[in-house]
């Protein structure tokens, strides 16, 4: 998906510090201070986790840390709600299957 | 154990309002929020708010957020972020989880709960697919994170949230492929619907989402018409190629902490669902625990702010910082400010429900269970399925007469529903716009006093005022309108003029694109068109190339 | 229901966290479980990480549709502390905190 470079009300995007994160082994760039979910969606990734019972994809849904659909494994820790967790340099992010890794 | 006089839970408009007023009168206030930034949902509200001067009407939500934070800071409100209230126990003890690391206990003499609302949902096959998101989530993504949730979006729900978020998605550069509404009419303000319709978004009233399909995320959505019993009509299915489906089907009070604290809850459908009973001072059935904002009944940000302020004042009074005469005066003042926002066809049900809450609270004190009968409905609301025609608009007091239009530039106010809003009145230096005694009354145009200066155009949060200049040239009329999409057109551009429904009417020439400080980021575009289109053209086609 | 049945198909999930389908909720209601609390115990709907924040009102609708009950009579499930998930190691911190939690 696209980042919003210019906006009629919010103006041009401010200069932000770029950082690198690793998503399922692939290095992608993100902006310091943004949520993991925003960085992933901006990079075209939408399926964040797969469910335990039906093995179906889930992603960003409530956006306020309530529904837990966006949970991923971050730096080895599962169940991190990516919609309310901000990216950090070198973060390692992996798709969550059920309660943990595939 | 740390002790505070007042603990306010939730730093949205209600919580900020409560913290500001309580500390203004001298109470020591701690304001906590579970997020890492204060403001609740205010900072993603990039549109101009309705209301009156006291409610900062005409100001964009995020600016109101900045003002409130500034005020809270200057009054010495202590704000603790990433602080979650785990529970409120007997003996006024509150347990807090700070930064997910540490549990702290706190003793608070008074607690104000301003925990806001939660988005309701609608379930259909495929609604768990990535790409189906809440409207609030979409708004956070575009207006805070500046990332589009998708490029082709279907909105579900034509209430104000659905309409406003659709508009903001267009502004951010996404395509909104349609707004689906189960009711047989547009449920939000018509002026909000008019904005997105001028932008070319189709509205499907009496429709539902039957299914959303996709492998790893949304690839298409199937919508269908509904019959009178709300069942999908076979054969009316329509498949839309969308990558995102946005749910805006209402909010319910986030009453979990109130419930945990022991506040008595009851169901008030017109205010979103189960909520804590409270009195006219906003104190719940649990002594010392006050409630405000969407928790005390889902409304909108301006009422949440005023209700928060009233709760803060009540708390300060109960702690002895305000004497009873002064308190009664303030309570009356804020009560009437709140009542103003609950007038008119959109507000009266909420006003009645609020009264019921208070009467149920009083009965609870004496052990009764009776609910007041619903009062007389005073709704004169005509429900629209689409934007009305010119001839319908002409019936309203803001539309200038044909004679006046032929005389020269004049404002044309297409505001036809009684909503609580009046910035246009103050915007006119010639006092040509009048709203009678009530904030919800329709603006009327004193057409002989209108000089056609155009200052009212950008002041209208509903973008419902246009400028018509019939005598622009011998064969052309000029029309001015607010415009908030990028890229802006340039003078000399030949573009398509569109009518109120976003349909192209004819080629027009852009004459002027004005951006003034007073317009607060709303551009005013003037185009020249054939005179016959003066009652039809109300905008220009949005350019859909990359911004 | 088999784990690999249909990718999306007609399956309509009600409780997103525990992946409980509409049919399972309806079945429970037909069996006589007609409160949000009873349905939670029978099906696990609302027992997941979000604690019924999303599905509670959907289940309320289904109960209202299938029984004589009015919506205001279909109460949300009792809210229990802690209101947010807390790691056990943090809950187990030494000191007075533990005593206070035992007050519930």
| CATH architecture level-2 label of chain A | Roll
Helix-and-strand structural type of chain C: mainly alpha
Main sheet: strand order of chain A:
2-1-7-5-6
Kindly provide the name of the CATH class of chain C: Mainly Alpha
Tell me about this structure:
The complex is a heterotrimer of chains A (102), B (547) and C (104). Chain A is mainly beta and 102 residues long. Chain A has a single domain, classed as 2Fe-2S iron-sulphur cluster binding domain, sarcosine oxidase, alpha subunit, N-terminal domain (Ubiquitin-like (UB roll), Roll), CATH 3.10.20. Chain A is built from one helix and eight strands; from the N terminus they run E-E-H-E-E-E-E-E-E. Chain A has one helix at 36-42; strands at 18-23, 26-31, 49-50, 57-58, 71-74, 77-81, 92-94, 96-97. In chain A, the strands form two sheets. Chain A has a five-stranded mixed sheet, with helices on one face. The longest helix of chain A is centred in the middle third of the chain and has 7 residues, at 36-42. Chain A is globular and about 45 Å long. The mean pLDDT of chain A is 95. Chain B has 547 residues and is an alpha/beta fold. Chain B folds into three domains: 2-118 and 251-366, FAD/NAD(P)-binding domain (3-Layer(bba) Sandwich), CATH 3.50.50; 122-248, FAD/NAD(P)-binding domain; 390-540, no CATH class. Chain B contains twelve helices and 28 strands. The termini of chain B are far apart. The relative contact order of chain B is 0.12. The model of chain B has no long low-confidence stretch (mean pLDDT 95). Chain C is mainly α. In chain C, 37% of the residues lie in helices and 5% in strands. Chain C has five helices and two strands, in the order ββααααα. The longest helix of chain C has 11 residues, at 56-66. The model of chain C is unreliable at 1-9 and 94-104 (pLDDT under 50). Chains in contact: A-B, A-C, B-C. At the B-C interface, strand 4, strand 5, strand 6, strand 12 and helix 6 of B face helix 5 of C. Chain C: This is BFD-like [2Fe-2S]-binding domain-containing protein. Chain C: Residues 13-65 form the BFD-like [2Fe-2S]-binding domain.
